[in-house]
């Protein structure tokens, strides 16, 4: 368990992109007539609150925003400040937020789904929406797989049941009109071990994400079969705030959102920003070149349109058997653009 806070950040080391290691999908959806969480309206421009952010290991939007002061600068405009805490494992960050030790962190769509049946202490206020080219399936060239349909009867590695990898695989199969039982799914809990299994020939294909997706592409005699961008699958990352902090400091939540939007725009405009950070974290240059080639996405508020897109993912994962029903999402999100600036 990490000690909070860490005011001086360590070398982050090689890690998956923000949230990816935690993306164990379950399902989502709900009644279309949803109403977001009602946060108290800001009483004025100034809010001298301290935003305690818990970030994951690896290079991600939070750590880049710490390096650039994007969030800090946004908070200074309203008299606030930021305290950085981490690196934390995804589960550890969620527990720290629920225990009141931090106010902001990242989370997965899965957790949003899993907690949506009740009013959670965590409220989603933004997500990173990208094309999905950072998640996909890599195949061994000698396996005779030229299309998704050719996966039938093949051994395909994913991390765990209901995981990001399995979601990527089943979304691809669905796009080709195939069911899960058309392939031999091999569960390998550690995603890095899945890359090794692909390299050794223990499996014919690997469905994975982010750094692991890039690592698989570096294995000799392999090729990318498909990506979420091609199958239309959505597997996005969320930013969350504690409900109590949202109620007390809505202007600060909006300022943090503005800082994240600013940072996301910076790395979209100049991919060298992320590249330099990853190299400074000790990541191999050939891996970094692939990762920074992925669409970094944009930070967007969770409005009705975005919520409808999240619901579609939920309906899809119900079809995959990850969850029995589609929960109501309305209790655990806020449209941050309504909070003022």
UniProtKB/TrEMBL annotation:
Domain annotation Solute-binding protein family 3/N-terminal: ranges: 50-281
Gene3D superfamilies, per database record: Periplasmic binding protein-like II
Superkingdom assignment: Bacteria
Pfam families to which the protein is assigned, alphabetical: NMT1 (PF09084)
Alphabetical UniProt keywords: Signal
InterPro entries cross-referenced by the UniProt entry: Solute-binding_3/MltF_N, SsuA/THI5
Signal peptide: 1-29
Keyword Electron transport: no
Coiled coil: none
PANTHER family: ALIPHATIC SULFONATES-BINDING PROTEIN-RELATED
Record family assignment: Belongs to the bacterial solute-binding protein SsuA/TauA family.
Protein name: NrtA/SsuA/CpmA family ABC transporter substrate-binding protein
Source organism (scientific name): Micromonospora cathayae
Source taxonomy: Bacteria, Bacillati, Actinomycetota, Actinomycetes, Micromonosporales
């Amino acid at each position: 368990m990490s000690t909070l806070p860490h005011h001086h950040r360590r070398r982050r080391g090689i890690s998956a992109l923000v949230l990816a290691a935690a993306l164990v999908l379950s399902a989502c959806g709900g009644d279309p007539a949803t109403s977001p969480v009602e946060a108290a309206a800001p009483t004025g421009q100034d809010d001298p609150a301290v935003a305690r952010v818990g970030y994951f290991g690896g290079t991600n939007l939070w750590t880049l925003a710490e390096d650039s002061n994007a969030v800090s600068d946004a908070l200074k405009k309203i008299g606030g400040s930021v305290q950085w805490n981490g690196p934390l494992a995804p589960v550890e960050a969620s527990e720290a937020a629920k225990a009141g030790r931090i106010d902001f962190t990242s989370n997965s769509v899965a957790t949003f789904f899993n907690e949506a049946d009740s009013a959670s202490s965590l409220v989603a206020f933004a997500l990173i929406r990208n094309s999905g080219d950072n998640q996909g399936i890599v195949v061994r060239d000698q396996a005779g797989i030229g299309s998704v349909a050719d996966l039938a009867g093949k051994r395909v590695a994913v991390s765990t049941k209901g995981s990001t990898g399995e979601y990527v695989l089943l979304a691809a199969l669905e796009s080709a009109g195939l069911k899960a039982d058309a392939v031999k799914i091999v569960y390998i809990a550690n995603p890095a071990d899945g890359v090794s299994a692909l390299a050794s020939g223990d499996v014919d294909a690997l469905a994975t994400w982010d750094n692991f997706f890039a690592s698989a592409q570096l294995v000799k005699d392999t090729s990318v079969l498909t990506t979420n961008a091609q199958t239309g699958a959505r597997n996005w990352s969320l930013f969350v705030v504690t409900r109590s902090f949202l109620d007390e400091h809505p202007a600060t939540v909006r300022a943090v959102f503005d800082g994240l939007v600013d940072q996301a725009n910076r790395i979209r405009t100049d991919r060298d920003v992320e590249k330099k950070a990853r190299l400074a974290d000790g990541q191999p240059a050939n891996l970094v070149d692939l990762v920074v080639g992925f669409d970094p996405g944009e930070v967007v508020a969770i409005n009705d349109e975005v919520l409808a897109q999240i619901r579609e993912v939920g309906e899809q994962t119900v079809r995959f058997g990850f969850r029995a029903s589609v929960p109501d999402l309305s209790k655990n999100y806020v449209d941050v653009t309504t909070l003022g600036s």
